[in-house]
Write a structure and sequence with these properties.
heterodimer, A: about 350 residues, alpha/beta, GMP Synthetase, Chain A, domain 3, Rossmann fold, 2 domains, 9-stranded mixed beta sheet, 12 helices, elongated, disordered C terminus, B: about 100 residues, alpha+beta, 3-stranded antiparallel beta sheet, globular
Chain lengths: ~350, ~100
């Protein structure tokens, strides 16, 4: 005879990974059946991942095999079969990450006109220059500027099952609403359409294997930003701002948005930080100085007003690819390195 | 604050959450549903009220991004997005304040 108490005692000694609590206390163990020498343990459907369940199955099997009288241990994990399957509540494990995409990083700003897309494009290319596989998702559906800045108007190819291939340029994968619109047509859409576009850009684009997916958000804290935060587990947010206090007010909203949806803020990039006069070499702080410091967030980099950054965007050859030797390209690579440093996986790869 | 494990326990009609600081919280289905924060249940603005629903049955619960849970109920209701912060608050208030209204 197998004693059920013995079995429970054993299960009580198995902690859940990452916790001091045991699997019995957590309610993970459902029905326990014993018959002759066989023990059948049902694990309730929960948010536990496949990996954790496998680990626990191993632990349970070896723990119970030691119980007197036990010859065979069977563990049913996951969804129950038959009638119970309809009624049993299922907890979905972690928000479905994008398959193959290691990190999703959102580039946001509290308001428009701070050079967010310029920064996003150059950051993506700087990450690429540092040997990462990079995608760039232009989530600014109302005013998509990535195609112009990247110098491509290619139409994405259709794949199977209504999927589409991203456009490739300068070694990175791109998707943008701009690829599907002509220059004249205005985008007059309500929230639900914007939400479904963002969802499709995330789920229906064949991104393949990426180290970083950079998402260029539209200005402000609207539908696109919220949808992105709800659809995928964001690894981090980067905020772009100009130095003056007025922009900063909007930055606070951007910061609050990321905090509210529990997305770690990697830092602020101060754009149009200053201007160096090409004639006399004097540094002018047109928009003032010190505003971004007041946020208390890490400053990932200061990007001055430089003509080559602007023209690079206008002609579709961003500074980082057109003038990799330019001091500002180095600034973007520095920012990219800081972003990589926040990612333990990247550090590990770099050490290899 | 983030959940490590979310387990609906049907027999006891409750949702059990293990948090990353090792706190364990139990949410009876009726309690959880009554405090649904969505605009359909609560309207807009003002205090949140407990909206009693008879014998609600949880049919699923999904994660929303990095920050919230979204339970689905047997009457088709699924508009509630419970932020982790709100869930912790609900758990802490459960014994002390039960069904008293809270500031939205």
């Amino acid at each position: 005879m197998i004693s059920e108490q013995d079995i429970r005692d054993q299960l009580k000694r198995i902690p859940y990974p990452g916790s001091s609590r045991d699997i019995l206390t957590l309610g993970l163990v459902g029905e326990i059946l014993t018959q002759d020498g066989t023990v059948i343990v049902h694990l309730r459907p929960s948010s536990a991942t496949e990996e954790v369940l496998q680990h626990l199955t191993g632990r349970i099997t070896s723990a119970l095999s030691a119980v007197p009288g036990v010859q065979k241990v069977t563990i049913h994990a996951g969804r129950p079969r038959g009638a119970a399957a309809q009624s049993a509540p299922i907890a979905t494990p972690a928000p479905t990450p994008l398959p193959g995409v290691r990190r999703v990083i959102a580039v946001a700003s509290g308001k428009g006109g701070v050079g967010k897309s310029t920064v996003a494009v150059n950051l993506a290319l700087a990450l690429k220059a540092l040997d990462n596989r990079v995608g760039l998702l232009d989530a600014d559906v109302y005013g998509p500027s990535v195609p112009l800045m990247m110098g491509t108007e290619a139409l994405p190819r259709a794949g199977q099952d209504k999927k589409i291939y991203p456009v490739e340029k300068y070694g990175i994968s791109l998707i943008s609403m701009g690829f599907f619109l002509d220059d004249q047509s205005p985008v007059i859409w309500r929230g639900p359409i914007v939400m479904s576009i963002i969802r499709q850009f995330l789920r229906d684009v064949l991104w393949g294997e990426l180290d970083y997916l950079i998402v260029d958000l539209p200005p402000g804290t609207g539908d696109a930003a919220l949808t992105l935060a709800q659809e995928v587990p964001l690894s981090g947010g980067v905020i772009v701002s100009t130095p003056q206090d007025v922009a900063l007010l909007d930055v606070q909203r951007g910061i609050a948005m990321f905090r509210q949806v529990n997305v770690p803020i990697l830092g602020v990039i101060e754009n149009m930080s200053y201007y160096v006069c090409p004639h006399c070499g004097e540094r002018e702080e047109i928009f003032g100085h010190g505003g971004v410091q007041k946020t208390g967030l890490e400053i990932l980099g200061e990007v001055p007003i430089v003509e080559e950054i602007r023209t690079g965007g206008d002609v579709g050859k961003p500074l980082v690819v057109q003038h990799p030797e330019h001091p500002m390209a180095a600034v973007f690579r520095q920012i990219a390195l800081r972003v990589m440093e926040t990612d333990t996986g990247a550090v590990r790869r770099a050490q290899r | 604050m983030t959940p490590i494990l979310v387990t609906p326990i049907e027999e006891e009609k409750l949702l059990r959450i293990l948090w990353d600081d090792d706190q364990l919280s139990d949410y009876p289905f009726a309690y959880l549903r009554g405090w649904c924060p969505c605009a359909v249940c609560q309207g807009h603005g003002g205090e949140r009220h407990f909206i009693a629903v008879e014998n609600p049955q949880l049919v699923g619960v999904g994660l929303v991004g990095n920050y919230a849970l979204n339970p689905r109920w047997n009457d088709g209701h699924e508009t509630g997005i419970y932020t982790f912060e709100y869930l912790r608050d609900l758990s802490n208030r459960r014994e002390s304040q039960g069904e008293n209204p809270v500031k939205g």
